[in-house]
């Protein structure tokens, strides 16, 4: 999902939901750093 769509969605979320989304994005970033090759091959299949 493009980041522009994500930012548009954030406008409609409650503050609590925003925290959940941000926490999820941070977790995803950490996962990307830990498993770059696995994620890379998954994205482009």
Order of helices and strands: HHH
Low-confidence stretches: none
Number of helices: 3
Shape: elongated
Helicity, as a percent range: over 70%
Give the terminus-to-terminus CA distance: 15 Å
The chain-level mean pLDDT equals 76
What is the strand content?
under 5%
Main β-sheet description: none
User: Structural class of the secondary elements?
Assistant: mainly alpha
Number of E strands: 0
Query: What is the alpha-carbon Rg in Å?
Result: 13 Å
Question: Care to describe what's here?
Answer:
With 45 residues, the protein is mostly helical. The protein has a domain of 31 residues. It contains 3 helices and no strands. It is elongated, with a radius of gyration of 13 Å. The model has no long low-confidence stretch (mean pLDDT 76).
SSE arrangement:
Blueprint: H1 3-11, H2 15-34, H3 36-43
Give keywords.
single chain, 45 residues, mainly alpha, 0% strand
Short description:
By secondary structure, the protein is an all-alpha fold. It has helices at about 5-10, 15-35, 35-45.
């Amino acid at each position: 999902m493009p980041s522009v769509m994500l930012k548009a969605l954030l406008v409609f979320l409650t503050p609590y939901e925003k925290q959940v989304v941000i926490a999820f994005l941070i977790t995803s970033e950490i996962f990307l750093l830990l498993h770059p090759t696995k994620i890379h091959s998954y994205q482009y299949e």
